[in-house]
From TrEMBL:
<dbReference type="Pfam" id="PF07714">
    <property type="entry name" value="PK_Tyr_Ser-Thr"/>
</dbReference>
<keyword id="KW-0067">ATP-binding</keyword>
<dbReference type="InterPro" id="IPR045274">
    <property type="entry name" value="WAK-like"/>
</dbReference>
<feature type="domain" description="Protein kinase">
    <location>
        <begin position="83"/>
        <end position="396"/>
    </location>
</feature>
<dbReference type="InterPro" id="IPR001245">
    <property type="entry name" value="Ser-Thr/Tyr_kinase_cat_dom"/>
</dbReference>
<dbReference type="GO" id="GO:0005886">
    <property type="term" value="C:plasma membrane"/>
</dbReference>
<keyword id="KW-0547">Nucleotide-binding</keyword>
<dbReference type="GO" id="GO:0004674">
    <property type="term" value="F:protein serine/threonine kinase activity"/>
</dbReference>
<dbReference type="InterPro" id="IPR011009">
    <property type="entry name" value="Kinase-like_dom_sf"/>
</dbReference>
<dbReference type="InterPro" id="IPR000719">
    <property type="entry name" value="Prot_kinase_dom"/>
</dbReference>
<protein>
    <recommendedName>
        <fullName>Protein kinase domain-containing protein</fullName>
    </recommendedName>
</protein>
<feature type="region of interest" description="Disordered">
    <location>
        <begin position="422"/>
        <end position="445"/>
    </location>
</feature>
<dbReference type="GO" id="GO:0007166">
    <property type="term" value="P:cell surface receptor signaling pathway"/>
</dbReference>
<dbReference type="GO" id="GO:0005524">
    <property type="term" value="F:ATP binding"/>
</dbReference>
């Protein structure tokens, strides 16, 4: 009798606890979901837009059962209708298999099962390899603010049309910090293929220079897309080796949009609420960011690709504890032999094309140093950087003269033109069209 009473008591409180957990998951789902929707709406034009939902019956009534005046455009049908005394157009699609970006929601239990309960061995700081519905995926589990996870998802979805962005698949909003699901990148992090310390530890084959240069150009192109292809330029604000994945063909996939921000319409800069590990000097001083913050970060990536050194774990150079890899190379590259700073694995490739390789390396050093100038106005735009990297790539094939310093190549605009462009906040239509067109195909030049 006593045992039956205890079992009933235990069962009763277990049910109460389960209900509390279910209610908490539902609360978090709605709380995170509302933040996600708010961020998605705000990302349209920096202003909250009153996006409303209507029932199917309301839309049928508004269009007289979709028999009203209509216009067929592309894969859509537009109906004229009346809602709440206001004339509107209602869009319908007749393409049954048209697929938008399929951002799905998953339960905490699904993600635990997918990763075998989040083992201690994982990829990078946040990433876990998992299997969902027969598909290998990457699951991102952040330990910080919910806001940055939602920002990461929104910007990733916004940029996922570009072939060099890690594409989001879904998310779990039932946890305190939303968890994100992305496509799988089979060859892991770029850092593990470049940093001499990681290559040695993991016994990886060092990446050849030709592939490093191609990856640099592809990432430069991706940042050009962020800066020019949208009405409001998007600043990544978190570019470093660990934010770049490689797929099975070593195509780079940019991720880590936690801190990404858009420059408000009519403004020249933006107050960025979060700081990443590496910051441009002007952002460190003022807390305000422009596209030139990404240029600075990309310049540091170039210098790491050249040297094989991790800015946080420098092994080959003797650097003061208060100094940085960028500062060291700005001092060291002036008048020293380029071979002294290059990754030994790159120099080991030197064969019959030794002279052309040296010219390429020198041109990339010059570009990296220009991108990391202290004064942001002296840095090129990412469009300029992409053009120069394409020229450097073609050098060995065409014998084209690279000249010396980037500033002598007429790829930089004048300081006045840069300032004017920053204030106007729009690139030329030709540049935008070219960047958009290129983003729709693999970046082969």
């Amino acid at each position: 009798m006593r045992w039956n009473w205890f079992a009933s008591y235990h069962f009763f409180f277990k049910r109460i606890e389960e209900r509390k957990q279910r209610e908490e998951r539902e609360r978090l789902f709605y709380e995170n979901g509302s933040k996600l929707v708010e961020k998605l709406i705000a990302s349209c034009n920096a202003k909250p837009i009153p996006i409303r939902t209507f029932s199917a019956q309301q839309l049928r009534q508004a269009t007289n059962n979709f028999s009203s005046e209509k216009l067929v455009m592309g894969f859509s049908i537009w109906y004229k209708g009346s809602l709440e005394g206001r004339f509107v157009v209602i869009k319908g699609s007749f393409v049954r298999n048209a697929k938008p970006i399929p951002i799905r929601t998953f339960s905490p239990q699904q993600l635990r099962q997918a990763t075998n309960n989040y083992p201690s061995q994982h990829l990078g700081i946040y990433w876990y390899k998992g299997s969902l519905e027969g598909r290998i995926v990457l699951i991102k589990r952040l330990d910080n603010l919910a806001y940055i996870a939602i920002n990461d998802l929104v910007i990733s979805a916004q940029m996922s049309g570009h072939s060099n962005v890690l594409k989001p698949i879904g998310c779990c909003l039932h946890t305190r910090i939303p968890m994100l699901v992305f496509e799988f990148a089979a060859n892991g992090l770029l850092a593990d293929r470049i940093y001499v310390s990681r290559v040695t530890e993991l016994q990886h084959e060092p990446m050849v220079w030709e592939k490093r240069l191609k990856i640099a150009r592809q990432i430069a192109h991706t940042l050009s897309y962020f800066h020019t292809a949208f009405p409001r330029p998007v600043i990544h604000m978190g570019i470093f080796m660990h934010s770049i994945f490689l797929d099975e063909h070593d195509v780079p996939k940019l991720s880590h949009f936690h801190f990404s921000v858009s420059i408000p319409e009519g403004e020249a800069d933006v107050d960025a609420p979060f700081r990443s590990i590496f910051c441009a000097p002007e952002f460190e001083a003022t807390g305000k960011a422009t596209e030139k913050a990404d240029v600075y970060a990309f310049g540091r990536i170039l210098l790491e690709l050249l040297t094989g050194e991790d800015s946080l774990n420098i092994t080959r150079f003797t650097i003061d504890k208060d100094s940085t890899l960028v500062a060291y190379l700005h001092n060291r590259a002036q008048g020293s032999c380029i071979n002294e700073i290059m990754d030994p694995a790159i120099l080991a490739e030197d064969g019959d094309g030794g002279a052309s390789l040296q010219h390429q390396l020198q041109a990339v050093v010059d570009l990296g140093l220009t991108c990391t100038e202290e004064d942001p106005q002296r840095r090129p735009t990412m469009v300029d950087v992409t053009k120069q990297l394409r020229r450097i790539e073609r050098f060995t094939q065409t014998g084209e003269e690279l000249g010396g310093n980037l500033q002598n190549l007429k790829l930089l605009e004048s300081v006045e033109e840069h300032a004017s462009a920053s204030l106007k906040r729009n690139a030329s239509s030709d540049e935008i069209q070219a960047v958009n067109k290129a983003s729709e195909r693999p970046l082969e030049v």
